[in-house]
């Protein structure tokens, strides 16, 4: 094409980035790789080929790790960890800075290698993946530096197993490795089998930085290697990938005591109001769904447009799609590169071809043969259609319309996922009204797919749990430094069941603000230490759990009350309990056969006052993201929290769970102490006289072991905690895998309810979800 012809057509010419340097690096390694274990590359083992999806060319041969490799990597990480932690934050910060600088120095090599291996446009790897990966190491170098002063009392978890996907290979590595190392952990990381090359180049960088041996270990291979890491002697698993595999990992780690964070799939809504800047919103969609060929967990893959502008919006969108350039990912003018692998291409095709609803538009620009898929828009789908619900993980946008803001929220939340959402409106009041109503860990206003190391990222519902990035992300790589003691079982006192005595009192359950008989009508006798009958306590069953959850769901207005009001109610509860302190203390002494009743009541009153104090002070943060704007890391209630309360301190245990849960705006379904349940009944009246709205607190009594599975697997419960002495941690974590709800279980470890560990930030964190709302500035 001549210059004058180019001026005439304004066509882009090819501007391919050179692959020479990356190819030379691969050649230097002999184009074959072992694993990076204990600071050395191992000899190549049985392996598999990794290809450039854009051309099908074999780039290198990688090794499939066996159990001996995984064991060696875990052992190396274990050996290295104490010394790495002892090096101290500032010592570790030096290494993290060095890694960041080396990533920066080699950014072009990393970007080209990433594009060759993954198929993503070089513009993206060069301008987004690699700079963000560097930013993560710089940011977390700072976190290491500040750890001792800003996170007193927190220590590393130990060895972290990290399993990452193929869509952002180096970036996901950085998200996982940087915070783990900063906090004094060592890691065993497995990159995805399609895209391991930048992880192996990173291993080279670790050597160049002089990182102590064993701090970072990288093993390659498929899901079987992932499974080995999950079952290895590690202290934490951090996983990003499909919901299906995330669920398997939740089940596999249940009851193991391993910490777990899961960042899974999504079907994120992209909501355009009729007062939006339409051209910007169209441009935003290019980033939302065609960025990385739509292979993005938080892709804005579900377009919801307000009815009045829908046709105009679709017309502009189709025109924009038709101008998109698909092809050689190394070409700097390319918008859409290759799909990561033919298997993924098939998955996209099958899902799209199965659909017969709506109207499909494919970008008019030529789409090369091979592992490419054109940008696609499917309009006119109903909210329930399969393509509106299933994650496609390709460049396919599905669309529907809405009329009112509340309908937009309803459609947006009609999904099993909850990762991200985008809102376009020129009316900031509308946008900020909608953001809290969306079930999503991240909400972008008038922009999309914005990320930063300082802004927490993570999901709700089946998009997983845990946050990566910012101060909140560090919680997932540290724990409180408390000497853990095994929990002693607490058993109910026995009496003479054969000789029934006169019943002093018959307690009930507390559901929806009313005392209720148990559904099954069953009771159990409760005796004192001397075997004398004190009363009868109801044995709740699964139906009672369902009723309590329903009542709790009905009380959702509690989440919308002001923190000031919640504080007032907690103070009132404290006062009313205090007024009856003597009576409660005697009751506790009689039930437990102890003499600590008065101390326990005093501590319970104090705890209510503590959480009344916290109710309006456990704030989010404004994070300093590098753009003109802010990201607000808001703390929201989780929703309905189910909890098995401690057995050993019947009143204090109940209050220690109830108070943080309701202080943060959640509703509670609590199962009181299994051994000493009657104290719950005493509390009902205190709740009644303290203005706690019906349904906010629901209390059941009965067997923890029997109720745990129902509570854990209930689809309308957002989080489950257990401080029971019954051995139910595994049951709860397994049961929670279905809806991937958050869990907090004791794994047989004791908590000192009278002491400072019985309250505080750990409870507040567990009772809240972080939602990051990005608000750009601009007139
Ligand atoms: P995947 O979830 O199978 O793979 C992610 C990582 O997990 C890889 O490193 C893989 O080797 C490993 N893995 C696989 N099975 C494992 C197991 N049983 N235990 C431990 N680790 C295991 O995702 P895949 O098969 O590559 O893609 C399938 C679908 O998953 C995609 O079509 C997409 O819908 C979704 N996906 C979502 C991602 C996200 O970021 N949310 C990322 C990648 C895929």
From TrEMBL:
Q: What is this protein called?
A: Aldehyde dehydrogenase (NAD+)
**What single Pfam family name could you report for this chain, choosing any that match?**
Aldedh
Q: What's in the keyword line of the UniProt record?
A: Oxidoreductase
The segment(s) forming the Aldehyde dehydrogenase domain are 47-479, 525-746
Active-site feature positions: 263
- Which organism is this entry from? Puniceibacterium sediminis
Origin superkingdom: Bacteria
* Keyword Oxidoreductase carried by entry: yes
What PROSITE patterns is this protein classified in? ALDEHYDE_DEHYDR_GLU
SUPFAM superfamilies listed in its UniProt record? ALDH-like
Q: Check the record and name the PANTHER family matching this protein.
A: ALDEHYDE DEHYDROGENASE-RELATED
- Similarity field: Belongs to the aldehyde dehydrogenase family.
Q: What is a single molecular function from GO for this protein?
A: oxidoreductase activity, acting on the aldehyde or oxo group of donors, NAD or NADP as acceptor
The opening ranks of the lineage are: Bacteria, Pseudomonadati, Pseudomonadota, Alphaproteobacteria, Rhodobacterales
């Amino acid at each position: 094409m001549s210059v004058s012809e180019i001026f005439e057509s304004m066509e882009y010419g090819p501007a391919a980035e050179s692959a020479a340097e990356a190819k030379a690096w691969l050649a230097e390694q002999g184009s074959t790789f072992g694993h990076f274990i204990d600071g050395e590359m191992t000899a190549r083992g049985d392996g598999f080929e990794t290809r450039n999806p854009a051309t099908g060319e074999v780039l290198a041969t990688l090794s499939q790790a066996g159990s001996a490799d995984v064991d060696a990597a875990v052992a190396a990480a274990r050996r290295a960890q104490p010394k790495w932690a002892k090096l101290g934050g500032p010592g570790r910060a030096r290494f993290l800075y060095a890694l960041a600088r080396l990533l920066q120095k080699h950014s072009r090599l990393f970007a080209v290698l990433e594009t060759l291996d993954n198929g993503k446009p070089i513009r993206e790897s060069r301008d987004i993946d690699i700079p963000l990966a560097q930013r993560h190491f710089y940011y977390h170098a700072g976190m290491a530096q500040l750890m001792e002063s800003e996170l007193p009392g927190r220590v590393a978890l130990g060895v972290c197993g990290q399993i990452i996907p193929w869509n952002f290979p180096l970036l996901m590595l950085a998200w996982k490795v940087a915070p783990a190392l900063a906090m004094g952990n060592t890691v065993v990381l497995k990159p995805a089998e399609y895209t391991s090359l930048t992880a192996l180049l990173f291993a080279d960088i670790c050597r160049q930085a002089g990182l102590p041996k064993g701090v970072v270990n990288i093993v390659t291979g498929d899901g079987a290697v992932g499974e080995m890491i999950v079952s290895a002697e590690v202290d934490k698993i951090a996983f990003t990938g499909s919901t299906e595999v995330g669920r398997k990992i939740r089940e596999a780690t249940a009851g193991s005591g391993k910490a777990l964070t899961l960042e899974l799939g999504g079907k994120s809504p992209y909501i355009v109001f009729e007062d939006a800047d339409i051209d910007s919103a169209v441009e935003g969609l290019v980033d939302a769904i065609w960025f990385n060929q739509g292979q993005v967990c938080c892709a804005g893959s579900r377009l919801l447009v307000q009815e009045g502008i829908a046709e105009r919006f679709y017309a502009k969108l189709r025109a924009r799609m038709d101008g998109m350039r698909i092809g050689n990912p190394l070409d700097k003018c390319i918008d859409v590169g290759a799909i990561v692998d033919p298997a993924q291409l098939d998955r996209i095709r099958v899902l799209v071809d199965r659909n017969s609803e709506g109207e499909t538009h494919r970008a008019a620009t030529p789409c090369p043969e091979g592992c490419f898929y054109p940008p696609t828009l499917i309009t006119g789908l109903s909210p329930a259609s399969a393509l509106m619900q299933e994650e496609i993980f390709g460049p396919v946008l599905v669309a529907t319309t809405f009329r009112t803001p509340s309908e937009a929220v309803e459609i947006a939340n009609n999904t099993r996922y909850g990762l991200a959402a985008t809102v376009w409106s020129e009316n900031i009041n509308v946008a900020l009204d909608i953001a809290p109503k969306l079930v999503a860990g991240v909400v972008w206003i008038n922009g999309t797919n914005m990320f930063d190391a300082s802004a927490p990222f993570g999901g709700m519902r089946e998009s997983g749990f845990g946050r990566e990035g910012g101060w909140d992300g560090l919680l997932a790589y540290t724990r409180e430094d408390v000497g853990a003691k095994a929990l002693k079982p607490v058993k109910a006192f026995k009496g003479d069941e054969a000789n029934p005595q006169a019943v002093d009192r018959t307690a009930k359950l507390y559901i929806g603000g009313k005392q209720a008989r148990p559904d099954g009508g069953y009771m159990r006798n409760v005796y004192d230490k001397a075997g004398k009958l004190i009363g009868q306590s109801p044995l709740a069953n699964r139906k009672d759990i369902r009723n309590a959850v329903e009542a709790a769901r009905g009380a959702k207005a509690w989440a919308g009350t002001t923190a000031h009001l919640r504080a007032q109610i907690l103070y009132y509860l404290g006062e009313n309990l205090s007024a009856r302190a003597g009576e409660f203390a005697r009751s506790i002494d009689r039930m437990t056969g102890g003499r600590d009743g008065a101390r326990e009541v005093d501590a319970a009153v104090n705890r209510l006052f503590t959480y009344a104090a916290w109710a309006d002070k456990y704030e989010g943060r404004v994070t300093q993201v590098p753009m003109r704007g802010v990201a607000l890391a808001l703390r929201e209630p989780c929703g309905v929290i189910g909890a098995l309360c401690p057995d050993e301190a019947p009143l204090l245990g109940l209050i220690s769970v109830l108070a943080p849960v309701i202080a943060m705006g959640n509703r509670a379904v609590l199962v009181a102490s299994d051994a000493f349940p009657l104290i719950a009944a005493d509390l009902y009246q205190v709740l009644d006289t303290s203005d706690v709205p019906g349904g906010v607190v629901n209390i059941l009594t009965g067997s923890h072991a029997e109720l745990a599975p129902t509570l854990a697997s209930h689809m309308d419960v957002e989080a489950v905690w257990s401080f029971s002495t019954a051995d139910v941690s595994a049951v709860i974590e397994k049961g929670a895998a279905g809806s991937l709800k958050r869990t907090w279980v004791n794994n047989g470890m004791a908590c000192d309810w009278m002491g400072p560990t019985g309250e505080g930030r750990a409870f507040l964190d567990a009772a809240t979800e972080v939602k990051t709302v990005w608000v750009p500035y601009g007139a």
